[in-house]
Amino acid sequence: MTHRRTLLARASAVACLTLLASLPAAAQTVPAAPAAPASPAPAAGTWPVKPVTIIVPFPAGGGTDTFARPLFAAMGKNTGRQFVIDNKGGAGGTVGAGLAARLPADGHNFFMGGVHHAIAPAMYPKLDYNLESDFVPVGLVSNVPQVVVVNAAKGPAADLPGLLKLLRQNPGKLNYGSAGNGTSHHLAGELFKLQTKTFITHIPYRGAGPALQDLMAGQVDMMFDGLGSSAGHIRSGRLKGLAVAGERRAPGFPDIPTARELGVPDYVVSTWYGIWAPKGTPREAIERMQAEMKKALESAELKATWTGLGSETPNLWGNDFSAWTARETKRWAEVVKASGARLE
Question: What are the tens digits of pLDDT across the range 212-221?
Answer without folding.
Answer: 999 999 999 9
